[in-house]
Structures are given as structure tokens and as C-alpha cells.
Amino acid sequence: MNHIQADRKWKTQMNECETQSCSHLPKYESMNCVNECTSKDCYNEIYKDEPLEDGEIDTKREKTFKRCLRDEALEAMVSISNILLLVSSLYISVTFLEIPQNEQ
Question: Residue 97 gets which letter from DSSP?
């Protein structure tokens, strides 16, 4: 998975949070909700100890948060790829096994 695909993944999740889970809040009050909804782990790492104030823009932490989201998405896709490779390998192994037939 490349960075474009990873970014698309977290941006889609963030959009869902903005339009669904956190839509009850005004936009200038919703960023903590949106960030936590998008990734609880990244939120806890970047914002938990010092949440954004309503309307606050913190570009340094925002960049760090987005980097965390990208890394998280890339890691998830690598894990899925590894699982798919393992399943494919197992399938190939089973397919080529010779199973003895019962003698009757």
C-alpha cells in the first residue's frame, strides 16, 4: 500500500466521523471528537493529555496526528497483505499434498 491509499483510508474515516459520529457538534467544537473517532490510538498519543480548545489550530500536532494516521493505515494494510500471503501459501500447500486413498 502506498501513502496515497493510506491517506485515502484515514480521510474516508475522518469524513465519516465528521458527518456521522460528531455531526451533532458545531465544526469549530468538533475536532477532538473527530480526531478521537478517526483513531483512538493516535488521538491518545497526540491529543489526550492536552486536547484542542474549541477553534484551536495546532499545525504541529495536526501534522504529527496525520503522520500517525498514515502509519496506522499502512501498518493495517501490511498486516492484511501478510495474512493474504499466508492463506495463499497454505492453499497452495494443501492443493499439492497427496492424500493417500483408503484401501478397501
Answer: P
